[in-house]
Amino acid sequence: MKTRSLVALVSSVGGGLAVAGAAALGARAGVRGQRAAAQRVVDMLPVHADWWRERIHHEGQLTYVAIGDSAAQGVGATVPSRGYVGLLARRVRRRSRSTLRVVNLSVSGATTWGARHEQLPVLGTYTPDICTVVIGANDILDFHPDKFERNLRRIYAAVPSHAIVADLPCMFFRERERKVQVANEIVHRVAAEFGLTVAPLHEITKRVGLRRTFRNTYGDLFHPNDNGYRIWASALEPAVDARVDTLMAIRRYLSAREVEELGPRAAAVAAARADQDAETADEHSPDLQHLRQHRSHGSHVAGNPDAPTERHDAASHRGDVSGAA
Questions:
Q1: φ/ψ of residue 134, rounded to 5
Q2: pLDDT, tens digit, for every residue of 84-97?
Q3: Tens digit of pLDDT for each residue in 185-198?
Q4: Rounded to whole angstroms, how far apart are CA atoms 285 and 281?
Q5: Which residues pair with 164 in a beta bridge?
Q6: What is the predicted pLDDT for the residue at 242?
Q7: Architecture of domain 25-253
C-alpha cells in the first residue's frame, strides 16, 4: 500500500514538474516571439513612414489629414494601407466617388506633446476636408493629467471645427485602465468645449473583449494587426461618413464663392438647402399627394377638428429649415 502511495506521489510530482517545465519553455518561447515581433516593428517604422510620406504628393479632389502615432502609421498591419487611416481613406473615396489626397502627419511613438510640437506646425500648411486625431495612448506609460490636458487643448484648438477625435482604446489591465479613464474624461470634456466629434474607440475596443483583442493584436502585443485595425476604423466610420455626406451636400448646393463667403456656416446652409430640396421632391410625389388627399377627405367626413394640423407641421418644418440656414 505504501509502495503504491509512493509511486502515486512520485508520478504526481513528476507530472507537475513536467507541466511547469512545459510552461516555462512556453513562456520563454513567448518572450522570444514577442522580442522578435518588437524587432520587426522597429524595422517597419521607416518603411511605413516613407510610404505615407510619398502619398502626401498625390493630388486629390478632397484632402484627408491624420494626426496621431504609430497606430495612424498602420504599424502592425501587413501593409500600411491596412491601418485605420488607410481603411478610412478607402471608405472616403468610395462614399464620395472622389479622388483623395491623404496627408498622414502621424509619427510613431508620438505623445500629445509630440503631436503638439511636431505635427501641428505642419497642419497649418493644409486645408483638410476631413481630419482625424487619434493620439494619447503613448502618454499612459508616464501619465500626467495636467500636461495631457494642456497638450490636448492646444491640439484641439488648432484642428478644424469638423475634426473627428477619438478617445483612448481600452487597455484592459487595471492600472492602465485607471489612467485611461482619467485621460478619456479629459478628451470628452475638452472636445465638447471645442465642439469636436468624439469617436468611441474605447467603447468599441472594450466590447471586443480581452481574448479577441489578443487575437487582433500584432506579435509585439501592443499594436493592432489587420483585424484590429478594422475594429479601430469602425469606431471612426460613422463620423467620417457624416462628414463626407456634408462635403457632398456643400459641393452640390453651394458655389465655390458661397463656400468661401460662408466659411464655417457653409455646412449648415448646404444642409438646409438639401432639406428644402427633399421637401420639394416630397411635395411633387404622387404617393404623398394621394396620402394627403385621403387624410383631408377622411377628416372632412368625420368632422375632425385636427384637419389643419398637417399644414401647420409642414410650415413649422420649413421654418426650422430656414432657421438652420
A1: -125, 95
A2: 999 999 999 999 99
A3: 999 999 999 999 99
A4: 6
A5: 132, 197
A6: 95
A7: 3-Layer(aba) Sandwich (3.40)
